[in-house]
């Protein structure tokens, strides 16, 4: 059985670590408590700042091929309604490390972020 909250927390932590390494200051991270979590505007897991630029990131697991289209539309609507100049809205999809292929064609692929700018 997969512990979904723990899986999500690991992805969010990996995202924050990468942003800190790139020089971003983390202003907000989603807060977990016993019965759920609190996200910024119920959409974004991480909010970061670098100078006058603000970055809003929603972190998801790379799953089926639709890439969370309804979630992307909700972010676009939020951006149109509340977005300011100097704000970046992104959806980060984590593609887990995996083996692919069979026999002598079997290859290992490292985990990677697929970043969708909205």
Give a structural overview.
The strands form three sheets. Strands 1-4-5-6-9 form a five-stranded mixed sheet, sandwiched between helices. Strands 2-3 form a two-stranded antiparallel ribbon. The protein has a two-stranded antiparallel sheet with strand order 7-8. The protein has 118 residues and is α+β, with helices and mostly antiparallel strands. It has helices spanning 4-21, 69-82; strands at residues 25-29, 31-33, 36-38, 46-50, 53-61, 87-95, 98-100, 107-109, 112-117. It is built from two helices and nine strands, in the order H-E-E-E-E-E-H-E-E-E-E.
End-to-end Cα distance: 33 Å
Overall pLDDT score? 89
Total number of beta strands: 9
State which percent range the strand residues make up: 35-45%
Comma- or semicolon-separated keywords:
118 residues; alpha+beta; five-stranded mixed beta sheet; two-stranded antiparallel ribbon; 2 helices; 9 strands
A few lines on this structure:
By secondary structure, this protein is α+β, with helices and mostly antiparallel strands. 27% of the residues lie in helices and 39% in strands. The strands form 3 sheets. The chain has a 5-stranded mixed beta sheet, sandwiched between helices. Strands 2-3 form a two-stranded antiparallel ribbon.
Write the layout of secondary structure elements.
Blueprint: H1 4-21, E1 25-29, E2 31-33, E3 36-38, E4 46-50, E5 53-61, H2 69-82, E6 87-95, E7 98-100, E8 107-109, E9 112-117
Parallel strand pairs: 5-6
Antiparallel strand pairs: 1-4, 2-3, 4-5, 6-9, 7-8
């Amino acid at each position: 059985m997969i512990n979904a909250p723990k899986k999500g927390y690991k992805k969010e932590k990996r995202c924050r670590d990468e942003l800190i390494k790139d020089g971003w200051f983390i202003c907000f991270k989603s807060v977990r408590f016993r019965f759920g979590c609190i996200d910024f505007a119920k959409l974004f897991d991480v909010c970061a700042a670098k100078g006058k630029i603000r970055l809003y990131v929603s972190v998801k697991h790379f799953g089926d091929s639709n890439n969370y289209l309804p979630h992307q539309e909700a972010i676009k609507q939020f951006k149109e309604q509340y977005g300011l100049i100097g704000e970046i809205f992104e959806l980060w999809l984590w593609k887990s490390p995996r083996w692919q292929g069979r026999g002598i064609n079997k290859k290992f692929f490292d985990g990677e972020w697929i970043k969708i700018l909205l």
